[in-house]
């Protein structure tokens, strides 16, 4: 087995790990990045499927994502706005299809009042939450003991208002049923984006895309790191003590003073630690789990919905595809729709045959856009739940009570081992922006620790 020596070994070549490695290299530290997959990017993945460029993983850039935007500028990458001209579509529980513009769905005056009231209440609570320390809120334990669904029931008896507010957190973000995570976890999700209002504004949270795909960020970072990035090298064992670490793969071993685990928390248990991680860390990781969502790509000869006066933006908590958008690539004559099927609905359709699942999903899209949606020239489902080195999407979140109980230790180093990924970010939680922020902060802490203290006097 080949053995190399480095100052820091980084496990995981996603945006967070590669950012950390880049910052460490800038500071003069030597690095090795070990990646289990045969590609870089983690949950960022742009590929050509049947002649169509599809962003299989993350893709959008929001106005507040300063860390991502500065990285895009540094790498010379350009962005373009998501198409949003025209009417949006909303489908009610009874199946009534309505067109609308703006942020509030076309619902009854009573339901609209309840929606606005709930958004105001959530914005007020979110303003009290520090996304980097949600567990420090005076009511953190209380808010972490009640599910988000139950909390909504204490605030309104309007079912449609409840279902729509729930959709923005449960289906669109955490991709878990609203009864499976706490109100505190929901508030963290909103606080990470600046406010709950930002989450319900698709024109804000899904503002821009990168020309050529967002995976270019990790690809270009890895290119700069060159031979220090090792693909197809899953770490089987991590030996550690106060003197340093030894990361062991099937064909390569890296000895280093420090290690960064830049992988989703659910994958940490795939590594055998010698000695074992402390009890507190073992417990923490058992209270985190990934969400589950199918990202559906449907490519058509033209963006036909635009001619019908539609923006491509569509919502309904009562549809199999609970949200969908115009996802047409930059300067592409063809039109692309992207839709999402989350949590329990995703479980249900994966019990079907591939053909029946496709028909069910396209039928749901057709309810928004009409019968032409049934006939894409390219159809593809991003199923991150079956990805061995991800196991879900979009990111990990705590079970009931877990955030207040363990959150403060999410990023606490264990000896020479540090942690870095979007799943443990505050601002930018679950997003590439958060991955980059944590990568920078983790690297900065290591650089500060590695530099000798200036002499006194």
From TrEMBL:
Keyword Oxidoreductase: yes
One MF annotation (Gene Ontology) recorded for this entry: oxidoreductase activity
Binding site for FAD: 16, 35-36, 235
Domain Amine oxidase: 16-447
Keywords associated with the record: Oxidoreductase
Cofactor: FAD
Pfam families: Amino_oxidase
Cell membrane as UniProt keyword: no
InterPro entries in alphabetical order: Amino_oxidase (IPR002937), FAD/NAD-bd_sf (IPR036188), Flavin_amine_oxidase (IPR001613), Flavin_MAO (IPR050703)
Chain residues that bind substrate: 340
Origin superkingdom: Bacteria
Entry's family note: Belongs to the flavin monoamine oxidase family.
Protein name stated in the entry: FAD-dependent oxidoreductase
